[in-house]
Amino acid sequence: MLSKIGLIGGGYIGGVLAQEIAQRGLAREVGLVDPAPFVNPKDPPDRQEVTKKQSVSIGKTLDISEGLPTIRRDVRLVGSKDYSAIKGAELIINTAGVPRKARPDGSYPSREELLATNLRVTGQVAEGIKQNCPDAIIISIANPLDAIVYTLDKRLGPSKNKLMGMAGQLDSGRYCYFVADAADVSVENVSALVLGGHGDTMVPVRSSCLIAGIPVSKFVDDDTLKSIETRTRKAGGEVVGLLGFGSAFVSPAWAALEMAEAIIHDKRKILPVCAKLDGEYGVDGLFVGVPAILGRNGMEKVIELDLTAEEKKAFEHSVAAVRKTCDEVDEMLEKL
Ligand code: APR
User: Fold this and answer.
1) Which CATH number is 22's domain given?
2) Are 92 and 136 in contact (CB under 8 A)?
3) What pLDDT is attached to residue 22?
4) Domain boundary among 130, 165, 200
5) CB–CB of 90/5 below 8 Å?
């Protein structure tokens, strides 16, 4: 058990994280920071006064706290609109960001505008961590994943083991779920890795996909596997399309907690992690999804796989996409 976990962002994923951390007893204290709801300067003054008194993070932490006697857990949950909530945290999970949604005038922000907004938010996240828990291990979930983790690294410059992104565990979970469903076997029997960037170029590594230790091809035919791999690459969008109000929030929270538990309990568990590469896989200075050992020191070691020629090509293609995003981030950060 840690003494304190800090959660940045108390939206859909942040809420599930706070609830699960309490339920699983992972820390004595949970600090949740979220400035929402934001005051709209165009609102009448009395409406602005009401909004100022509201707080998503205080509301959510109070709701969970009031359930603690029922689930018999002693956890202190602290919510705040400012970053003092994460003071002294040993582990941070970051979900702060602004989703793509219509402005009050009905227009939508462009991809670049949205990225610039989220890079600004990430600047505040980095400053909050620097001021309140500079030594914390950080797991970042916020999208665009590759760009946000890269920005946190630029802003904070932590040692390589202390900062990582969560994407591969979620994408691999999706791959495993679809395979288990197609093979009609327990999800517990399926293991697989999805590597590379967190986007259309991600690489479901078929050579790593095993059912009870047996190659997946023994159970699922080639065409079905191809369509599963395509569905895995688009799985985030599939949920967005169905929900109609946001993106997946339970499976990403559970995936981040799988990483957090490996760290908290010093499991030395190998999981797909968006980790900084210093020469591994022939990549330098970029955060890319790779298998890594997670233990008490965070991301303890990157594991280099022997990919097939086709997988290697797909991985390189994905790394090129991550590099392009990071070049764009570099340009934007200069202007912010
Ligand atoms: N500091 C802290 N929190 C912030 C800040 C900030 N500067 N700016 C915005 N937030 C908060 C928002 O108020 C919101 O409550 O971040 C929260 C994000 O929550 P949601 O919009 O509900 O998004 P969620 O579904 O939780 O996903 C969070 O993870 O998977 C990704 O694409 C997803 O980037 C998104 C992130």
Assistant:
1) 3.40.50.720
2) yes
3) 98
4) 165
5) yes
Atom of ligand 1 nearest to the CA of 33: 2
Judge if pTM exceeds 0.85.
yes
- Backbone φ and ψ of 210, nearest 5°: -125, 145
Sign, Cα dihedral of 26, 10, 95, 92: negative
Give the chain's domain count. Answer: 2
- Catalytic positions, written as ranges: 198
- Cβ contacts of 51 within 8 Å, gap of 6 or more: 37, 38, 39, 40, 43
Pocket lining: 33 vs ligand 1, CB cutoff 6 Å: yes
**297 and 195 together in one domain:** yes
Determine the residue of 8, 32, 34 to mutate for testing ligand 1's pocket, defined as the one with the most ligand atoms within 8 A of the Cβ atom: 34
Are both 135 and 210 inside the same structural domain?
no
Q: Which domain holds residue 102?
A: 2-165
Q: Is the CB of 79 under 6 A from ligand 1?
A: no
Alpha carbons 229 and 235: distance in angstroms, whole number = 10
Residue having the nearest C-alpha atom to atom 29 of ligand 1: 142
Per-10-residue mean pLDDT of the chain, 336 residues long, equals 97 98 98 96 95 97 98 98 98 94 80 91 98 98 95 97 98 98 98 94 96 98 98 95 93 98 98 97 96 98 95 96 95 90
Of 165, 197, 225, the residue that ends a domain is 165
Ligand 1 contacts CB of residue 138 (under 6 A): no
Q: Looking at the structure, do residues 140 and 198 belong to the same domain, yes or no?
A: no
